[in-house]
Amino acid sequence: MFGKRKASAKRFSLLLLEEEEDYVQDWVVRCRWPRTVSGNWQAVTELPGRIRLCTRSLFFEPDDVRVPIARLPFADVQALEQGGAPSPSSFSCVSTSVTKMRANMEEVPYAFVKGKSSVWVFTLMYAPLHSFMPSAQQLLAINHVPNRLQRGRELEAFVHAHEDASSFDTSRLLDFSERVLLEVPAAQLSPLVREHGHLVVTDARIYFQPLHNVSGDTPVRSHPLVAVAAVARRRSSLRQIGLEVFFVGPDLIQDSAAAVASGDTAMHAGSIRGSAGRGGQVGFAAMPALSVGPLWDAPSAFFAFRSECEREAAAAALLACPKLGSLMAASMPAAASNLHDSGSDSVRLEGRLSSGGGGDGG
Q1: Helix/strand number for the chain, H first, E second
Q2: Could you tell me which of 11, 5, 65 has the C-alpha nearest to residue 41?
Q3: What is the distance between the alpha carbons of residues 197 and 179, in angstroms, rounded to a whole number?
Q4: Pairing mode of beta strands 111-124, 180-190
Q5: Mean pLDDT in residue range 26-46
Q6: What are the backbone angles phi and psi of residue 74, rounded to the nearest 5°?
Q7: I need a labelling partner for 134 at 20 to 30 A (CA). Which of 1, 26, 214, 263 fits?
Q8: Cβ(246)–Cβ(300) below 8 Å
Q9: How much is the average pLDDT of 194-209?
Q10: What pLDDT sits at residue 84?
Q11: Could you tell me the maximum CA-CA distance found in the chain, to the nearest angstrom?
């Protein structure tokens, strides 16, 4: 009954953004590719694809993978105006430079076209123009601010306002009985990539929901607290606002669950003793449940917060969970006994939350 839009190969990724550039939103569009810019090899009048708004540029990703992704830096955009035909949802963008990347899905050096003024006309297919133009024009104005420090502050304020306009989707909780202990805006940092979103700590799991699921893999990442190996304070951009969470891998989780299921409890001696010192009791029956449910797809996750206060709130929420690191307590009973039997918050903090400074997260 309804037409179905053909899915395109996923070429765009956050790795295409500049350093300190953030992703904002995307729309389905049709684009009139300028004749002065090569790449539209079939000379199609209107190319279907997606326009992706970022804090420092506009990206157009054609559905046809043979046509390169075009990046239009706001610093070189001379005009961004409504109109240009062929519909009320159209707008034009005049730029003196364009970067072409990943044509035919090839990982080759980007092609830079500078000095020539080109006019790009986009038509939003399923959204009104006012959902795009105010944010795009605001970012254009910010990127033309002469003072670099002021420009950075205004871009940061824009991103924070964008974060505050959203919240964590509680329907993504693995168990409806989970109790949310903390929700705070944060950015997950990985090499060359920064993803803004919401960090949530419940009494059972840690969650991170990116503002945009650009990769298309999973809208929410999560990991059970019992399988958290360690938590460490870190620096990010030379500020004490970073927190790194280390996870127990799936192999150890499966081995623990298999051992408990087979009745081999010798390797888990002291697990109840270790967890009881924290006011909770994660018994042997809880171990097999670790093999059910999603796990983090990396050995650790590095988060950057807006302030040291928010970082400390996240650390405190994690440390307050009785289940935190119970699997580690079961695997290393001697260390867990020394950690918990002391009853000292400072020792517990040293064992669970390192404050040694660590590396700079970028």
Answers
A1: 8, 15
A2: 65
A3: 20
A4: unpaired
A5: 90
A6: -60, -30
A7: 214
A8: yes
A9: 95
A10: 64
A11: 74
What tokens does 42 get?
């079939």
Decide: 178 and 204 in contact? Cβ < 8 Å. Answer: yes
Please write the tens of the pLDDT for every residue from 83-139: 766 678 899 999 999 999 999 888 889 999 998 899 999 999 999 999 999 999 999
- Expressed in angstroms, the distance from the first to the final Cα of the chain is 50
| The pair of three-digit structure tokens given for residue 200, joined into one six-digit string | 């949530």
User: Considering the entire predicted model, what is its pTM?
Assistant: 0.80
The dihedral over CA atoms of 259, 261, 266, 268, expressed in degrees to the nearest 10, equals 80
Structure tokens at 2: 């309804």
Residue whose entry in the numeric block shows the structure tokens 């993504």: 172
Q: What angle do CA 82, 162, 233 make, to 5 degrees?
A: 150
Residues whose CB is less than 8 angstroms from the CB of residue 54 and which lie 6 or more positions away in sequence, other chains included: 17, 21, 22, 23, 24
CA distance 202 to 172: 12
Give the type of residue at 57: S
pLDDT tens digits, residue range 178-190? 999 999 999 999 9
Strands (E), the chain: 23-32, 47-54, 57-62, 69-73, 77-82, 90-101, 111-124, 180-190, 193-202, 205-210, 221-224, 228-236, 239-247, 300-304, 353-354
